[in-house]
């Protein structure tokens, strides 16, 4: 490894990751939006005109992208990262995407002799900014060890969960669980409100009881009680991730007895809440309750 690391995709997570990496490495960046590139250039990063150029100038490249389509374009498209990789380089995808698309990128890396890790991150923009993300890594142990110093710079915890594809698969499953838990929280809160129980009382009591969850701790104090939903992780992204998990289950003949979760997020998205934090799915329940 050299002292240069590439970052492609400078959104809520990628922009913070690039900033943290600048404390230890020369960082080369690209995004289709010039605004975050200009901001990072002001902090000392080198900006480029394509994902290919990032890969040509570094031997470790991180991807942080919001969707399957964005990953395909940035990695596999014209002037994509694969075109700029050399034998021995390592591509690390920190995105939450379909395991099938992740496999396509892994195969493309293998064809050019580059290493690949699917290494989606958990913890949101708040932890990305502090360099305390949790990373779920799928891929060869020896590949992980080569880039461990880079990943340790941006994370507090690294889990090597298995071979290529297992990191992104487990992340999709994890986000599916959070998405379902948020729906359960919203439904239970609506029940409590109908009984006249204040939101603060609900949150304090349930957090000390068997119904406690990460969704409860995250959503009530920071979003629902103040009724402010400035996004840490948008409802639209949650809908996407839940749909990815549902698709994975269908492709692998996994029974889903709890169905329709992505549809509920899609309805909330259609109601105008897509750019708010995913905790705003409670607004769907509020609307339905008020209509009764």
Q: What attributes does this structure have?
A:
three-stranded mixed beta sheet, 14 helices, Rossmann fold, alpha/beta, 2 domains, six-stranded parallel beta sheet, 292 residues, N-(1-d-carboxylethyl)-l-norvaline Dehydrogenase, domain 2, 55% helix, elongated
Number of strands: 9
- List SSEs in N-to-C order: EHEHEHEHHEHEEHEHEHHHHHH
**Structural domain tally:** 2
Fill in the CATH topology of the largest domain.
Rossmann fold
Strand order of the largest sheet: 3-2-1-4-5-6
Basic shape: elongated
Please give the CATH architecture of the largest domain: 3-Layer(aba) Sandwich
CATH superfamily of the largest domain: NAD(P)-binding Rossmann-like Domain
Helix segment count? 14
- Reading off the top of the CATH hierarchy, the class of the largest domain is best stated as Alpha Beta
Strand pairing plus helix content: what structural class? Answer: alpha/beta
Strand content: 5-15%
> How many whole angstroms does the radius of gyration measure?
20 Å
Distance between the termini: 62 Å
Compute the average pLDDT: 96
Q: Indicate the percent of residues in helices.
A: 40-55%
Unreliable spans: none
Query: The biggest beta sheet, please?
Result: 6 strands, parallel
């Amino acid at each position: 490894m050299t002292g240069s690391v590439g970052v492609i995709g400078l959104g809520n997570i990628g922009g913070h990751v690039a900033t943290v990496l600048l404390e230890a490495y020369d960082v080369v960046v690209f995004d289709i939006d010039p605004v975050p590139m200009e901001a990072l250039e002001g902090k000392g990063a080198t900006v480029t005109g394509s994902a290919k150029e990032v890969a040509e100038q570094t031997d470790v490249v991180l991807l942080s992208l919001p969707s399957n389509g964005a990953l395909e374009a940035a990695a596999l498209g014209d002037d994509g990262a694969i075109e700029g990789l050399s034998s021995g380089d390592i591509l690390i995808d920190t995105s939450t995407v379909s395991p099938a698309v992740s496999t396509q990128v892994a195969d493309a890396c293998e064809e050019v002799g580059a290493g690949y890790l699917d290494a989606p991150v958990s913890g949101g923009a708040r932890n990305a900014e502090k360099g305390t993300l949790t990373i779920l890594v799928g891929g060869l142990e020896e590949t992980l060890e080569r880039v461990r110093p880079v990943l340790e710079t941006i994370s507090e915890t690294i889990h090597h969960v298995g071979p290529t594809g297992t990191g992104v698969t487990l992340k999709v499953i994890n986000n599916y669980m959070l998405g379902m838990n948020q729906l359960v929280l919203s439904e239970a809160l609506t029940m409590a409100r109908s009984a006249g129980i204040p939101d603060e009382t609900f949150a304090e009591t349930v957090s000390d009881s068997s119904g406690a969850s990460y969704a409860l701790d995250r959503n009530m104090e920071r979003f629902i009680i103040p009724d402010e939903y400035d996004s840490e992780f948008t409802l639209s992204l949650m809908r996407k991730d839940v749909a990815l998990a549902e698709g994975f289950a269908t492709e692998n003949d996994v029974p889903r007895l709890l169905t329709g979760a992505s549809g509920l997020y899609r309805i909330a998205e259609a109601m105008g809440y897509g750019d708010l934090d995913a905790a705003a799915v409670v607004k769907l329940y509020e609307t339905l309750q008020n209509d009764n």
